[in-house]
Amino acid sequence: MPEILRKRALCTGIWEYVVEAPLIARKARAGQFVIIRLHERGERIPLTLADWDAGAGTITLVVQAVGKSTREMAERFGEGEEIRDVAGPLGTPSEIERYGTVVCVGGGVGIAPIYPIARALKAAGNRVVTIAGARRKDLLFWLERLKKVSDELIVTTDDGSFGRKGVVTEPLRELLQRGGVDRIWAIGPAVMMKFCSLVAREFGVPIWVSLNPIMIDGTGMCGVCRVEVAGETKFACVDGPEFDGTQVNWDLFLARLAMYRDLEERALKHYLGTVEERI
Ligand SMILES: Cc1cc2nc3c(=O)[nH]c(=O)nc-3n(C[C@H](O)[C@H](O)[C@H](O)COP(=O)(O)OP(=O)(O)OC[C@H]3O[C@@H](n4cnc5c(N)ncnc54)[C@H](O)[C@@H]3O)c2cc1C
Ligand code: FES
Question: Whole-model pTM?
Answer without folding.
Answer: 0.92
